[in-house]
Amino acid sequence: KKKKKKKKKKKKKKKRKKKKKKK
């Protein structure tokens, strides 16, 4: 019997948008 190798999934990082403050 042959063993199957499991593939690892890569997690994608989400970029956060910065808010600009008005003076």
TrEMBL record:
Give me the ranges of the annotated region Disordered. 1-23
Record's superkingdom? Eukaryota
Which protein is depicted?
Uncharacterized protein
